Amino acid sequence: xxxxxxxxxxxxxxxxxxxxxxxxxxxxxxxxxxxxxxxxxxxxxxxxxxxxxxxxxxxxxxxxxxxxxxxxxxxxxxxxxxxxxxxxxxxxxxxxxxxxxxxxxxxxxxxxxxxxxxxxxxxxxxxxxxxxxxxxxxxxxxxxxxxxxxxxxxxxxxxxxxxxxxxxxxxxxxxxxxxxxxxxxxxxxxxxxxxxxxxxxxxxxxxxxxxxxxxxxxxxxxxxxxxxxxxxxxxxxxxxxxxxxxxxxxxxxxxxxxxxxxxxxxxxxxxxxxxxxxxxxxxxxxxxxxxxxxxxxxxxxxxxxxxxxxxxxxxxxxxxxxxxxxxxxxxxxxxxxxxxxxxxxxxxxxxxxxxxxxxxxxxxxxxxxxxxxxxxxxxxxxxxxxxxxxxxxxxxxxxxxxxxxxxxxxxxxxxxxxx
Length: 419
Fold this sequence. Notes:
The protein has helices at residues 2-14, 33-38, 116-120, 131-140, 184-187, 258-263; strands at residues 48-49, 55-56, 114-115, 125-129, 145-149, 152-156, 160-162, 166-170, 176-180, 206-209, 219-222, 233-235, 247-252, 281-290, 294-297, 312-315, 325-332, 348-353, 359-366, 370-375, 380-388, 401-406, 411-414, 417-418. It is mainly β and 419 residues long. The strands form four sheets. Strands 3, 4, 5, 6, 8, 9, 17, 19, 21, 23 and 24 form an eleven-stranded parallel beta sheet that branches. A hairpin with a 5-residue loop joins strand 1 (48-49) and strand 2. The longest helix is centred in the first third of the chain and has 13 residues, at 2-14. It starts with a helix and ends with a strand.
């Protein structure tokens, strides 16, 4: 996706190049350089996309546009084959920054700090209650620890509350199983206020609690001029607190539903439940330029920014609890009937609250009311998540939410299976 953005910038330089129908020029990079060079000769509608994202031709065949194979597809008006028609100010958002570390770094493979069996006596025999071993490990480890959970079935009868940078690392989703025996209703005191469960919206049986906040202490400035989608500069009330290469957050409020209407190009009626919702949009960017009354950044704005939407820029400084993760294991809950929305017992698996640059990777979750909550945690990756049930939990739905993302942005969910 980053290459697609670079390609867009390169098209202008290549505009004077036109390869003829029988041109014999060598094309070593059909997805990028050569694609840009041949675009003037092959506008949208005259070439196709091969299955690997390169372009091909059914006529106008040349050395730079090889003949299409058995399977090819027409290019997208918004994206082309490999980003050659993408426009930062257009309708298609740039998602290339989504996920852990803004999509730049791979998920880390961190070495273990402690072994739950060797260091804390966990049995993992599907009989012994291993809750205390987990609690002791979480209490003992220092910040940024990896608790390795060897193969086995670990019985857990209480919540795990994590207020450190911790990774729970198993030996594989088919090898390490965390078997929870009690719901949040069993563990806590579900008040059932108004007949509704207090656990519909969380928390979970495993909770990672972060340190973020958004208030007057994090406010760096307000935006003073309109900025169009695709722009790379914002004019601000003060530049005093900005620094080069510092990450910041732009927050927008949905005043009179006009922000949501603008997101949809005023083509559909916005849902009234979001009317006047404060700070409903988060856009994260790294400062690359500071002027007398503006800041610049490498990432094009994903939305229009109107001063009517109370645009604020906030510091990333409070986000100190990063690199939290759950990986290579299964979270298992007993089969129970699903009681429909607002009637859940609280079989909620994972909750990440204000923990950016974190992840869930290679994880099965069985029989959950709510699978994963990502709350206030930008640059989060969920990868190879499988949500399954051991049998139908109702005649309609089998849970409330698979993955619930809120108060966040740049969250990548990929290679998932909700079955």
